[in-house]
Design a protein that fits this description.
Elements (H helix, E strand, L loop, with lengths): L1 H13 L7 E8 L3 E9 L4 E10 L4 E10 L13 E13 L3 E13 L4 E12 L4 E11 L1
Antiparallel strand pairs: 1-2, 1-8, 2-3, 3-4, 4-5, 5-6, 6-7, 7-8
């Protein structure tokens, strides 16, 4: 358990240099939660996202890192520029009731300008010990 915490902490801190590309402000429902995230481009259509969401009703929080396939539809049609559907996944850990598992995401980001985007995301956390934690996330990315 401590080794997993150390690996997740190193992953979050180690990507800090790359993650200065976008900061995410997140609101999740249900359960109600607030969070912060960092996103960094890896390749043309790949991005790494790390985030921490706090759920005050628990109290608990979720720490996760994931790789997303995130193409800009403007590559296909100029009229769709700024619309970026994405899907991907990675590892996560839920604190409060300590669980480690897979975090999967499916969503779309709409770029308002070159530095600002809003997103709608469906996320699922599947714990390795059983159980799941689905939720909807809305938020903003600031680059």
């Amino acid at each position: 358990m401590r080794k997993m915490l150390l690996v997740l902490a190193l992953l979050a801190l180690g990507t800090g240099a790359f993650a200065q590309r976008a900061v995410s402000f997140r609101l999740s429902l249900p359960p109600a939660g607030l969070g912060l995230g960092l996103e960094a481009p890896l390749e043309r259509n790949l991005a790494f996202r790390g985030f921490v969401d706090l759920f005050p009703g628990g109290p608990s929080f979720l720490l996760a890192g994931e790789v997303l396939f995130k193409p800009d539809l403007g590559q296909l049609d100029r009229d769709l520029r700024g619309i970026r559907p994405y899907f991907g996944g990675g590892l996560g850990m839920r604190f409060g009731t300590p669980e480690v598992g897979l975090n999967l995401s499916l969503g779309v980001e709409f770029l308002l300008d070159a530095r600002t985007g809003i997103f709608l995301d469906g996320e699922y956390f599947y714990a390795f010990g059983g159980g799941r934690f689905p939720r909807t996330v809305i938020g903003a990315n600031l680059r």
